[in-house]
């Protein structure tokens, strides 16, 4: 094994998967010579196809402020990792985003444009801090070509995904 995938939550209740907790794990992984992948859930707990809950302090934000919160959270965590000597090889924007993330604003089946904007914002934030990091859009059900086509065609239609 040469790679570790670490999930980052926003303000988790018990500190598990907070930026501090994940940094300590990343430092151990780096010391062991491992590659690092950071997985932003943008939630206070598990985000998956059946639940994409906003963090409590992001509830009630309009979409512009929600998008800014995603950007600021991503930049802050990545800057924190960079200042601690951690350079992830991969950064995942959202977790199991089969129908978007940060519901209801970023629910793809309701508003693919909003979901696409959130992905674009995360992508730009990653590339601002770690230009060579690979950015991942994560959906489950790898066998489901219709899901892949729907998500990735929707993202392509609604964004430019330019490198920064």
What can you see in these coordinates?
The protein is an alpha/beta fold. It has one domain: Alpha-Beta Barrel (TIM Barrel). It is built from four helices and four strands; from the N terminus they run E-H-E-H-E-H-E-H. The protein has a four-stranded parallel beta sheet, covered by helices on one side. Strand 2 (35-40), helix 2 (63-83) and strand 3 (90-93) form a beta-alpha-beta unit. Helix 2 (63-83) runs parallel beside helix 3 and helix 3 packs across helix 4 (145-158).
Rg result: 15 Å
- The level of helicity is 40-55%
| Low-confidence region ranges | none
Query: What about the largest sheet?
Result: 4 strands, parallel
In short:
The protein has 164 residues and is of the alpha/beta class. It is 40% helix and 12% strand. It has a single domain (3-158), classed as Glycosidases (TIM Barrel, Alpha-Beta Barrel), CATH 3.20.20.80.
What are the SSEs and their pairings?
Elements: E1 3-8, H1 19-31, E2 35-40, H2 63-83, E3 90-93, H3 112-129, E4 134-136, H4 145-158
Parallel strand pairs: 1-2, 2-3, 3-4
